[in-house]
Design brief:
The protein has one domain (8-383): Alpha-Beta Barrel (TIM Barrel). The chain contains 13 helices and eleven strands. The protein has helices at 17-20, 47-57, 74-80, 104-117, 148-154, 157-174, 206-222, 259-266, 293-303, 318-324, 326-336, 353-367, 372-383; strands spanning 60-63, 85-87, 123-126, 128-130, 133-134, 178-179, 226-227, 229-232, 273-275, 310-314, 340-343. Helix 2 (47-57) packs across helix 12 (353-367) and helix 6 (157-174) crosses helix 7 (206-222). Mean pLDDT is 90; it is low at 1-43.
């Protein structure tokens, strides 16, 4: 049997847990950052150019290394200059070392320092699905959580509510404001290395998925935490992992996989929708879903009627960068209708990713390949995900 390879954003939280056991009792980290003062913005030029860069920066969520920060760290400078948000991980893919989370006290201090550095509300995001995909877990001092597969198998609203409240309690404890959950993919193929084999789906039945996702979203909303239903338009049949390869679901995807998204959107329960990097030629013969106007604009916004923020899967994933390159992938994602671009900084670690992406997008606007109106539209949508201060 092939060894299951976890996506970059879904590293097994249990890996190396023994080595981490001694770390979970570390003392709280003291804040080393002063309160934020808005800076002149990244780059130089006219006030209009600086304002544009800050708008674009607000559309980016970026991962970084370190369990504490100082005012001179690149991630803190980016936050001071208007970076939209950060994404937290327990493990670093390249080094297999602890990344941002060692203990509840430590990560709470880290999040506090980052928020204090921001000139406005900062999105602090995480993948906390439950089960194997849980950044906050026993190896770093948080309670164990059941998987979506376990919850869906029980399919009990009271049990789901209790489970969801437990997930959310860990998030609010440390200051997370956006959770990339729930997974609403149907469990089309239980052997799928993206979903089924990792117990990430509630069920193969839309009714079970929608019922349990509804309870989970309500629990998050009650605590003021935003959610992102994923992975549009459905990857429950995906045989591979888009972080490391191009994945084509053309022959296995079924229209019923849209049903959870359709029903949750209709019920007003989609704070955001996360778009997958899979290629699905039933919907677009050329581009992966996350870069496709046919999928994002025509299907999601047109047919399904969704008008809220669309979030990308990792913009450094091989599934899009190998064919299109990093710069063109950013261009196509924004052009397709994606609003919030996530750079996990996992498989590839790029401390200059914010500056480079700002340069790319400002160049696209200056050249007329991307309109200022499109940037403003994305900013307005992403602002709905920001916490209230």
């Amino acid at each position: 049997m092939d060894r299951v390879r976890l996506p970059r954003r879904l590293l097994l939280t249990g890996a190396g847990s023994a080595a981490l056991a001694a770390l979970t009792a570390c003392q709280a980290t003291r804040s080393t950052l002063p309160n934020a003062r808005p800076t002149s913005g990244a780059g130089s030029g006219t006030p209009e150019a600086t304002a544009l860069r800050r708008k674009i920066a607000s559309l980016l969520v970026v991962g970084f290394r370190g369990d504490r920060v100082t005012r001179d760290d690149w991630i803190v400078r980016a936050v001071r200059d208007g970076l939209g948000g950060v994404i937290l991980f327990d493990r670093d893919l390249e080094t297999d070392a602890a990344r941002n989370i060692r203990s509840p006290q430590q990560v709470t201090a880290l999040v506090r320092d980052l928020k204090n550095a921001a000139p406005g509300p900062l999105i602090v995001s995480i993948d906390q699905e439950g089960g194997r995909t849980a950044r906050l877990n026993p190896s770093n001092g948080f309670p164990a959580t059941r998987s979506e597969a376990e919850i869906g198998a029980e399919n009990s609203p009271p049990a789901t509510r209790e489970w969801a409240r437990g997930l959310v309690a860990s998030l609010t404890r440390v200051g997370v404001t956006l959770n990339y959950a729930p997974v609403v993919d149907l469990n089309i193929d239980p052997r799928s290395r993206a979903i089924g084999a990792l117990d990430r789906s509630f069920s193969a039945e839309p009714d079970v998925v929608v019922s349990n996702a509804t309870e989970e979203i309500h629990a998050h909303r009650a605590a003021g935490v935003k959610t992102s239903i994923k992975h549009f338009p459905g990857i429950g049949s995906a045989a591979g992992n888009t972080d490391f390869e191009v994945v084509d679901v053309t022959s296995t995807w079924r229209p019923v996989e849209l049903e959870p998204f359709r029903r949750l959107i209709r019920a007003g329960l989609a704070d955001s929708v996360l778009a997958a990097h899979v290629l699905n030629k039933q919907l677009d013969p050329d581009r992966p879903a996350s870069l496709s106007p046919k999928v994002i604009t025509d299907l999601l916004r047109g047919e399904l009627g969704y008008q809220g923020p669309v979030v990308s899967d990792d913009m450094q994933a091989v599934a899009i960068t190998r064919r299109f390159g990093a710069a063109e992938a950013v261009h196509l994602a924004l052009q397709a209708g994606v609003d919030l671009l996530v750079f996990a900084n996992q498989q590839v670690y790029e401390p200059d990713v914010v500056t480079r992406t700002l340069d790319v997008v400002t160049g696209l606007v200056r050249s007329g390949k991307l309109s200022q109106a499109r940037i403003d539209q994305a900013v307005a949508r992403v602002d709905t995900l920001r916490p209230k201060r």
